[in-house]
Recover the amino acids of this structure.
């Protein structure tokens, strides 16, 4: 269960900023900066060698963390639009060679498996792109023979998912420019990434510590998680990958355990056993007091806007389930009235709460590219995890995630 133990008021912006010793909230707000950094690399012609190539296959190699999550999302969201197969692998396949495009994603520059994959891909003559930090064995394996898109923005390692997602998107959009307009709204990759970065900046402002919870979707999400056993779920391959990444981020950022699964697994799971109420106590004795109270389970379901109508009926079978959608316009929450525990956290308010006067200016949610929706949701859950860390008293915790890198 995610407990609220710090006594921090999530609507007290000064207290949140002062107590965020690890820089979690600043790091979570850097999603737009990470996309913009990749756009800058594209404008510097880093990816010119892959422009317009027609590989036999695109191989996304990643072993864990944000790199693996980004590879899963890219394969699920972008792969179906390509006229070549996109293969997701934890190691370089034996058949990969000079006819293929290999992208190696990860956060550990010392990972021998990743450095081996890079070195072998280059040796076989495959066009190779590396998103791992340009140092250590991986950097040495890449040398001057592989194209590199290392992180340029210092963020917590738990927040590198968006860097890898931006890099994978840039590589595939550069290689297949005819698909770029579908993903980014323009055939200019750098301009499209920059525009998406602006939208992520808008989401970060909407989720910022200075905005009250009733019009702040990240704070509403954090408050909805407190006091519950949390399960993140997705109804397809892309959103299930987001769910797993959100669960990992919550553990890395707030030290809180949760589950990240597919919606099918949630529907098949048995209900939480009922137990007596009451707060946990160090004096509790099962033989005298009976079974300890069971924390209620709350399920947060990631879904694409286009799938909302199909997902909602399935959620009727999920007790205390909440749907997470990316708002079509982050500023729409300025005009929302919400309950932090509302059943729809798409814009921080219940369905239809946004001012109807904005309907002509905001893009229809189902017209927003799915890759953008995934990126927006990532900014939201990363910020929400920071608020959970603050509320549960773990924002000052150090450790391997405690430095911006």
């Amino acid at each position: 269960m995610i407990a609220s133990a710090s006594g921090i008021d999530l609507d007290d912006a000064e207290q949140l900023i002062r107590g965020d010793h690890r820089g979690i909230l600043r790091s979570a707000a850097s999603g737009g900066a990470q996309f913009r950094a990749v756009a800058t690399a594209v404008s510097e012609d880093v990816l010119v060698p892959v422009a317009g190539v027609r590989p036999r296959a695109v191989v996304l190699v990643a072993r864990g963390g944000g790199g693996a999550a980004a590879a899963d999302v890219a394969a699920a969201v972008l792969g179906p639009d390509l006229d070549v197969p996109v293969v997701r692998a934890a190691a370089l396949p034996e058949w990969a060679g000079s006819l293929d495009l290999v992208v190696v994603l990860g956060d550990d520059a010392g990972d021998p498996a990743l450095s081996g994959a890079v070195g072998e891909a280059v040796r076989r003559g495959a066009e190779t792109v590396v998103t791992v930090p340009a140092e250590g064995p991986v950097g040495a394996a890449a040398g001057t023979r592989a194209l590199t898109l290392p992180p340029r923005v210092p963020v917590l390692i738990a927040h590198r998912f968006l860097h890898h997602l931006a890099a994978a998107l840039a590589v595939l959009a550069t290689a297949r420019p005819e698909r770029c307009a579908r993903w980014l709204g323009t055939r200019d990759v750098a301009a499209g990434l920059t525009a998406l970065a602006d939208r992520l900046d808008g989401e970060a402002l909407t989720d910022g510590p200075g905005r009250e919870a009733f019009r702040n979707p990240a704070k509403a999400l954090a408050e909805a998680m407190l006091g519950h056993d949390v399960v993140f779920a997705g109804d397809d391959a892309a959103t299930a990958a987001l769910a797993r990444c959100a669960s990992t981020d919550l553990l890395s950022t707030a030290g809180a355990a949760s589950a990240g699964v597919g919606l099918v697994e949630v529907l098949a799971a048995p209900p939480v056993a009922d137990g007596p109420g009451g707060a946990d106590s160090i004096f509790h004795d099962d033989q005298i007091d009976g079974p300890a109270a069971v924390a209620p389970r709350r399920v947060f379901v990631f879904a694409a806007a286009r799938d909302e109508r199909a997902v909602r009926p399935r959620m009727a079978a999920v007790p205390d389930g909440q749907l997470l959608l990316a708002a079509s316009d982050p500023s729409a929450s300025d005009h929302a009235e919400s309950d932090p525990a509302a059943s729809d956290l798409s814009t921080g308010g219940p369905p239809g709460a946004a001012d109807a006067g904005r309907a002509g200016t905001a893009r229809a949610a189902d017209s927003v590219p799915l890759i953008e929706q995934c990126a927006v949701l990532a900014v939201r859950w990363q910020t929400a995890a920071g608020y959970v860390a603050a509320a549960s008293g773990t924002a000052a915790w150090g450790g391997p995630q405690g430095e911006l890198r």
